[in-house]
Amino acid sequence: LERMITMARGGKKATEKAPKDTSIFQKIVRRDSEWTHKEISTALHWVRQFFSIFLGIIWGIIPLRGAVGLLSFLIVSSILSILFCTVYLRADEDKLGGRSVMIQEGFMLSFAVFLLFWIMTYSLLHC
């Protein structure tokens, strides 16, 4: 019976503690972590949101307007996504599905967050 209970718990005895799961944010800070595809997608999503807020505030302060602001965000956001995955996380590009998947992951939500902060900052400072 004890052997069956031990096997059901994944081979660990009741006195052994399971390792505590680390959050995505802790894994982002520690670059040596192992990543699954889902974790990379989640990390990329949150990093994009952070950069969207930051870039929206910067674009509103500068003040960039119109197509120049939109296109520059698209370019900077795409480059940052690729660099974050390939350079910082050292993830295999082919394993993730290529650069297009990295660029598309969480793009629409980050674009909406960027627009919100860009318009808000611009309106507060220049109108």
In words, what does this structure look like?
With 127 residues, the chain is an all-alpha fold. The chain has helices spanning 2-8, 24-29, 37-61, 66-88, 93-96, 99-104, 107-126. Helix 3 runs antiparallel to helix 4. It is elongated, with a radius of gyration of 21 Å. The termini are far apart. Mean pLDDT is 82; it is low at 13-19.
Summarize it.
The chain is mainly α and 127 residues long. Helices cover 72% and strands 0% of the residues.
Strand content: under 5%
Rg over CA atoms, rounded to whole Å, is 21 Å
Biggest sheet architecture: none
User: What's the end-to-end separation, in Å?
Assistant: 74 Å
Number of strands: 0
Task: Looking at this protein, list some descriptive labels.
127 residues, mainly alpha, 72% helix
Topology of helices and strands:
Layout (H helix, E strand, L loop, with lengths): L1 H7 L15 H6 L7 H25 L4 H23 L4 H4 L2 H6 L2 H20 L1
